[in-house]
Design goal:
Blueprint lengths: L7 H4 L3 E6 L3 H17 L4 E6 L1 H4 L10 E4 L15 H18 L3 E4 L8 H9 L4 E6 L9 E4 L11 H10 L16 H14 L7 E5 L11 H8 L9 E4 L6 H10 L5 E2 L6 H10 L2 E5 L2 H9 L3 E4 L14 E4 L19 H4 L3 H16 L1
Helix pairs in contact: 2-6, 2-11, 7-10, 8-9, 8-13, 10-11
Amino acid sequence: MSATAIPPAWAQVRRVLLLRLDGMGDVLMSTPAMAAVRECLPQATLSLLSSPAGAALAPHLPWLDQVLSYEAPWVRPGEASQGGPAGEGGADEALLLQLRRERFDAAIIFSTCTQSALPAALMCRLARIPLRLAHARESCYGLLSHRLPEPDALGPAMRHEVQRQLDLVASVGLHTVNPGLRFALRAADVQRVAALLAEAGLPPGRPYLLLHPGASAPSRRYPPEAFAAAVAVLSGEGGPALAVCAGPGEAGLLQRLGAALPRPPLQLPGPPSLGELGALIGGACLLIANNSGPVHLAAALGTPVVTLYALTNPQHTPWRVPSRVLSHEVPCRDCLKSVCPQGHQRCLTGVPPEAVTRAAWELLAEAAS
């Protein structure tokens, strides 16, 4: 099938608002589609509106002209609201006024299969943005100027999240020659991480594997003790060194992990910044992690990854990178829940540590061949 031509209205846009209002990993999975906009509309100014976590990617997406931060109250209810009832309207009104001042010609709304794009579409309509594109399963009437119908998220036509967003922009003729995730490492972060690893005891020239036991949702966390059992034999004499890290608020996971390991791992002093995390992952010979943002960083940086993948949403597996996706089959798979509704998390806890070890050895062997 030939590529869709860019409609005249889209070919003429000069200011585009890209909306991705959820997490860092979601923004990363949208970067190929955003890059398609940049490549096909080189004359346009591109602005990203994202959550604070997503907006933190700004230094690593240099082809964007502007990044705006906004906690949308319709994303992750209870976590993304604007605070108390008295203050929540003020932030919304301030954003709306700012969007009007920017005088955008077009808005492209990136959302997951479980999110409705219509609240963001309404905001863009009120901001007087004439072209508004999004996936939509429900009727949208005048909220969207361009709507891409979507089949059931988990049916036979299920697509990876990256492909969903590539298909969205392709519907208005925007394509990229490189469908890979984007994340630009900064030299200062690479140098700082190398120095910190050396201070922590990494011998010059010795490779290291990185273990990240964290995840934003409890249903996506493999037990730290099981992680420890899996990696204990990987970092023995002659193998790669073991480095560990976690995000803010996850020190308890590292403590449990360290208590279960036979030898202290390499560890940076405190949680790494996003740039340092990217440098850590980019320099590793392998990442072992849950289904979380670091996995998508690994995909962007080409680092092989073993991911402990809770069967909550099959659309977010590592994209175009050597990987092993490990889970335990359960009747309640594809639940799309952040907290296990059954209370047992067997889709994760049912994965034996030996399977993690075996997957890691396979990827290390493939990389060495």
